[in-house]
Amino acid sequence: MQWKTLALALVLLERGSSQGTMPMMRFSCSQLVVDRIDPLVNPGSMPSPHLHQIVGGNSFNASMDPATLDLPTASTCTSCTFSDDFSNYWTAVLFFRARNGTFKRVSQRQEENLHGNGGITVYYIPSSNAKNTVTAFKPGFRMLVGDASLKAAGSARKVCHRCMPASGDKKNINCGSPDSQTLPKEPCAGGIRSIITFPTCWDGKNLDSPDHTSHVTYATGSATNDVGPTGKCPSSHPVVIPQVMYEVRWQTQEFNDKELWPKDGSQPFLWSTGDSHGYTQHGDYVFGWKGDSLQRAMNARCNNDVCKEINTQTVEEAMKCTKHRVVEEDVDGWLHSIPGDAMVI
Ligand SMILES: *[C@@H]1O[C@H](CO)[C@@H](O)[C@H](O)[C@H]1NC(C)=O
Ligand SMILES: *[C@@H]1O[C@H](CO)[C@@H](O)[C@H](O)[C@H]1NC(C)=O
């Protein structure tokens, strides 16, 4: 029996007991642009089918050919506070639908204790066990999590919504109960946080794949809500990569007055895909850290947004890094349709 107790203890040790006790890089990336382009899924299309909000290096554009574009060289600035990070991160955009049928884009803010102009709070999480190193991504690496066409709950782990309290974050593990894949049904005092977490095992060969997902996978023996790379990577995808996670805080509070909500009792928010259920939120990732900076930060087990191994800039500096929209359309007024005329479902 003793070996069982030992095995359990090792599993618990491996998983880490809470989000607070293991190192994780967590930093602010301000809004680079809100635009209807998607170099990963619809390269070259201007416009792409739905609107995205994008952060990171300013070499971002609709084509971004991975064979020729070196993000750290082509970028002149980044909207992230780690100034060696010229990666791009993007997600769908949240809209509010008024009783009169018009739509308004919901603004964003950074998570607690971080500052910036809208954007995404980005995490890179190493293994909780310092002996298990992770391998940073290679130039040209890309991946996608979630599915913009989903009509029911998806299988990607930890893609969900949290109805936020007025302050704090409830302290439960992301996407644990009561977080849900659907959008919250009631007004949220602190807005809605969408959480998007990427897999932690890579095939070690392909920088991308036709569906942008099959070159990476989840570890076997890892639980849905584990924090950081846990479990064992399968032999098809043997390389342990950092766990990348996005948190996006949508400032839905400005629409919390129930007088503004639909009379039929449904909730009024929807993704830029037209989806009012919530299943289609997704995250896109294009790696672009300079040289071996991400590997050094992971090896040093840097925590939060301070890491002496790599270069940092102030939030004020990061916020200056923006781009003009290439698809000329109004995304900020009371709109008669969602950009791209996405069908509302
Ligand atoms: C994107 O940027 C690259 C490199 O700067 C450039 O060659 C390409 O033409 C740009 N594509 C678009 C669609 O703007
Ligand atoms: C529609 O409703 C919103 C929210 O109440 C309001 O701000 C907007 O002016 C209205 N637009 C029209 C065309 O009535």
Nutshell version of this structure?
The chain contains four helices and 17 strands. By secondary structure, it is mainly beta.
Description:
The protein is mostly beta strands and 345 residues long. The chain has one domain. The protein contains four helices and 17 strands. The protein has helices at residues 2-15, 71-74, 293-299, 315-319; strands at residues 25-29, 31-35, 52-56, 88-92, 94-97, 103-105, 108-109, 120-125, 142-146, 159-163, 192-197, 201-202, 216-217, 239-240, 243-250, 269-271, 282-286. Strands 1, 7, 8, 10, 11 and 15 form a six-stranded antiparallel beta sheet that branches. The chain starts with a helix and ends in a 26-residue tail after the last helix. The model is unreliable at 1-20 (pLDDT under 50). The site of one 2-acetamido-2-deoxy-beta-D-glucopyranose (NAG) has 5 residues, from loops. It comes from Lasiosphaeris hirsuta. Keywords: Signal.
Query: What is the first-to-last residue Cα distance?
Result: 54 Å
Can you tell me the overall shape? globular
H/E series: HEEEHEEEEEEEEEEEEEEHH
Provide the β-strand percentage band.
Answer: 15-25%
- Number of strand elements: 17
Helix coverage percent of residues? under 10%
Helix/strand structural class: mainly beta
| Ligand set | 2-acetamido-2-deoxy-beta-D-glucopyranose
Number of domains: 1
Mean pLDDT across every amino acid position: 93
Cα radius of gyration in angstroms: 20 Å
Low-pLDDT windows of residues: 1-20
The largest β sheet comes out as: 6 strands, antiparallel
How many helical elements?
Answer: 4
